[in-house]
């Protein structure tokens, strides 16, 4: 049967419940600017069991069931996926900007300008084959063209090496974060088994997941014991308190210059689809090699087509059978003038019949710039190189557009996430007033009950 002592017990529980609700509100306010913090809420419910009285049951106040984090897993997954995509595109865009800088076409320091001057020098020589200044100018432009291709190729190789060096750093970050996630899994599981609610530790774990998603394509699954499992490309990266490490492996044929990423447990290569690591591997293993191969084909096209015409012509002294470019050239990396041309501009063949004043060979080589001698007779030398530069520009433009779109999408998703999970100071201040008033009202109820009990005890 209900008594005044029951009323005092109810008031005590209610005061404690409102106090915990106020404390939770204060914790939210204190962490309003803490990165990764998720708003928490005291879940209040009517105390059970109710007290039986004549005619039925009467409630006995309120109880705090738990302090919950207001996480929206659906939005979390969407944000996680878009973060991976945005990180991939951001890294790719930055790398392509570096490739564009190496080519130098957008800044006016590319091969195209040197190539135009090279052809123009052949035109000048065809008009005045005996002019030593024209010959020296052509010799210099040929050397500049070779050196330009050498430098571009070398810079691209160096960029590949730099990217491979970054890969080591990324793998180190991944291993560090997964180890931290596994450690937090263990602590969280232990605390939950003891009846605790480690919300702040869960926030720390989610922050690590967010950081990890910028590096690799991760999928996250909640486990029944409060831990999470993390997968990359279908393989388990973190499961409860254990984390599988990644490591680098030399790629065969690269003499230790480049590396792949493998699972330390089984040696299988890791499958990356998004995140910075996937973008790095795409640029290192596809974008740059394709461009380098294109430069090689262009250089070999120059060597074979110009040499075939040049070797049939005559120099100033009547010598013939001389190549303009070295026949030892294997591509853009080592294209060079032939020894004869490099040592003496007089060995440049301009004449088709051996007479010093004839410039037909020089004219044929000048006209070569527009001849369809590349890509199985579908492109000219100029067109082929312009196509290489245009392909990089198109990739860069596509990357920029996709990155801009991804940033808008991620911002919208982040706003939804913030609305659902982040602290709103206006809302927390309203809650603070609400819980304060409830606390004051319960305190008044307790004071009134105490007066009634005192009156009862003073009766004789």
Q: Please summarize the sheet with the most strands.
A: 4 strands, antiparallel
Order of helices and strands, N to C? HEEEEHHHHEEEEEEHHHHH
Q: Name the strands of the widest sheet in spatial order.
A: 5-6-7-8
Number of domains: 2
Number of E-type strands: 10
Please tell me the overall pLDDT: 92
The percentage of residues in β strands lies in 5-15%
Number of helices: 10
Query: Per the principal axes of the C-alpha atoms, what is the gross shape?
Result: rod-shaped
Distance linking N and C termini: 23 Å
| Rg, nearest Å | 37 Å
List segments where confidence is low: pLDDT < 50 over at least 5 consecutive residues.
Answer: none
Class derived from helix and strand content: alpha+beta
Question: Oligomerization state of this entry?
Answer: single chain
The share of residues in helices is: 55-70%
Structure description:
The chain is α+β, with helices and mostly antiparallel strands and 460 residues long. It has two domains: 4-72 and 432-457, no CATH class; 78-409, no CATH class. 60% of the residues lie in helices and 10% in strands. The chain is built from ten helices and ten strands. It has helices spanning 4-30, 73-103, 111-127, 132-193, 199-213, 275-310, 339-343, 360-367, 381-421, 425-457, and strands at residues 40-46, 51-53, 56-58, 62-69, 218-222, 228-232, 235-239, 242-243, 246-250, 259-263. The strands form four sheets. The chain has a four-stranded antiparallel sheet. β5 (218-222) and β6 (228-232) form a beta hairpin. α2 (73-103) runs parallel beside α6, α2 (73-103) runs antiparallel to α9 (381-421) and α3 (111-127) packs antiparallel against α8. The protein is rod-shaped, with a radius of gyration of 37 Å.
């Amino acid at each position: 049967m209900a008594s005044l002592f029951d009323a005092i017990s109810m008031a005590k529980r209610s005061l404690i419940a409102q106090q915990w609700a106020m404390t939770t509100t204060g914790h939210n306010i204190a962490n309003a600017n803490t990165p990764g913090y998720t708003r928490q809420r005291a879940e209040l419910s009517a105390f059970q069991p109710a007290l039986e009285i004549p005619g039925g049951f009467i409630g006995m106040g309120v109880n705090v069931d738990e302090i919950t984090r207001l996480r929206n897993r659906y939005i979390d997954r969407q944000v996680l996926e878009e973060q991976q995509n945005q990180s991939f595109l951001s890294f790719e865009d930055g790398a392509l900007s570096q490739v564009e800088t190496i080519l130098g076409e957008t800044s006016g320091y590319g091969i195209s300008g040197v190539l135009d001057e090279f052809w123009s020098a052949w035109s000048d020589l065809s008009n005045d084959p005996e002019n030593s200044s024209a010959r020296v100018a052509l010799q210099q432009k040929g050397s500049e063209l070779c050196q330009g291709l050498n430098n571009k190729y070398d810079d691209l190789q160096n960029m590949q090496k730099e990217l491979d060096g970054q890969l080591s750093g990324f793998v180190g970050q991944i291993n560090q974060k997964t180890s931290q996630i596994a450690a937090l899994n263990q602590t969280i599981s232990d605390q939950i088994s003891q009846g605790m609610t480690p919300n702040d530790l869960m926030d720390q774990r989610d922050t690590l997941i967010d950081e990890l998603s910028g590096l690799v394509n991760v999928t996250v699954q909640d486990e029944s014991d409060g831990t999470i499992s993390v997968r990359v490309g279908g393989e388990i990266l973190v499961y409860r308190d254990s984390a599988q490490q990644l490591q680098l492996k030399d790629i065969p044929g690269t003499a230790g210059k480049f590396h792949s990423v493998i699972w330390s447990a089984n040696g299988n290569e890791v499958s990356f689809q998004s995140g910075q690591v996937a973008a790095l591997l795409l640029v290192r293993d596809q974008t740059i090699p394709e461009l380098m191969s294109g430069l090689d084909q262009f250089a070999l096209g120059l060597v074979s087509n110009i040499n075939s015409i040049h070797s049939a012509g005559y120099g100033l002294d009547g010598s013939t059978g001389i190549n303009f470019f070295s026949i030892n050239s294997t591509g853009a990396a080592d294209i060079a003038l032939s020894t004869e041309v490099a040592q003496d501009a007089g060995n440049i063949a301009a004449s088709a019949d051996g007479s010093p004043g004839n410039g037909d060979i020089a004219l044929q080589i000048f006209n070569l710039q527009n001849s369809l001698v590349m890509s199985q007779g579908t492109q000219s030398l100029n067109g082929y190189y312009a196509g290489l530069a245009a392909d990089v520009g198109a990739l860069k433009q596509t990357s920029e557009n996709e990155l801009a779109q991804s940033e808008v999408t991620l911002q919208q998703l982040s706003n939804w996430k913030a609305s659902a999970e982040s602290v709103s100071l206006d809302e927390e201040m309203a809650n603070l007033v609400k819980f304060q008033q409830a606390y004051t009202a319960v305190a008044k109820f307790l004071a009134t009950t105490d007066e009634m009990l005192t009156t009862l005890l003073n009766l004789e």
